[in-house]
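User: quick one, sequence for these C-alpha cells?
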C-alpha cells in the first residue's frame, strides 16, 4: 500500500530572521519599533462651561446710604409716635373715667347746696330787716329785641386811597408775618 506522505504545512515566515508582530510594516535592524497606542476615552465626559465675565463690584452710592438712613429715622419716629399715641390714649381713658366721677360728684354737691339754702327763707329774712327791698316800677327797664341787629362804625377811615398806598399796606401786612 501506499504509504501516506505527510506534508508539512506551508509557513512563509519560517525561514525569516525576524518575528512577525502582526504589523505589515517592515522593521529594519536597529530601528525603534513604533506601535500605535490604543485611544482610551475618559470614563467621565467633562462638560465645558462657557467662560462668563464677572461684572466688577460697584460702589455704594452716597444717595442710597442717605436714603436708607432717612427711611430708618422715619421708621423710628413712627414707632415713637405710636408709643406716644398709646400712652396718651391710656391717659385719656383714665381722665375720662375721672371726669365721669367728677360729674356725678358735682350733681351730688349741687343737690346738697340747694338743700342747704332755702331762697324763700333768705328773701323773707332780708326783706324783713329792711336791707333789701323789691324794685319799684320806675326802676325796671325793658329791652326790645324784636328789631334785627346792626352795627354802626364811627370814625372809619376813608376807603379811597392811592394805588401806592394800597401796595404799601399790602407789603407791610405781608412783612408783618416774618
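Assistant:
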Amino acid at each position: 500500500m501506499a504509504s501516506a506522505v505527510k506534508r508539512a504545512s506551508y509557513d512563509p515566515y519560517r525561514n525569516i530572521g525576524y518575528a512577525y508582530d502582526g504589523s505589515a510594516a517592515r522593521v529594519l535592524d536597529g530601528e525603534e519599533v513604533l506601535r500605535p497606542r490604543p485611544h482610551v476615552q475618559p470614563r467621565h465626559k467633562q462638560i465645558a462651561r462657557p467662560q462668563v465675565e464677572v461684572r466688577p463690584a460697584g460702589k455704594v452710592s452716597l444717595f442710597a446710604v442717605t436714603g436708607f438712613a432717612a427711611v430708618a429715622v422715619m421708621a423710628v419716629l413712627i414707632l415713637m409716635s405710636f408709643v406716644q399715641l398709646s400712652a396718651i390714649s391710656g391717659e385719656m381713658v383714665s381722665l375720662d373715667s375721672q371726669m365721669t366721677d367728677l360729674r356725678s360728684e358735682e350733681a351730688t354737691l349741687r343737690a346738697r347746696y340747694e338743700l342747704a339754702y332755702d331762697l324763700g327763707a333768705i328773701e323773707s329774712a332780708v326783706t324783713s330787716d329792711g336791707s333789701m327791698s323789691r324794685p319799684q316800677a320806675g326802676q325796671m327797664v325793658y329791652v326790645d329785641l324784636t328789631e334785627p341787629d346792626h352795627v354802626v362804625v364811627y370814625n372809619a377811615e376813608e376807603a379811597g386811597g392811592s394805588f401806592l398806598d394800597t401796595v404799601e399796606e399790602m407789603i407791610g401786612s405781608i412783612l408783618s408775618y416774618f
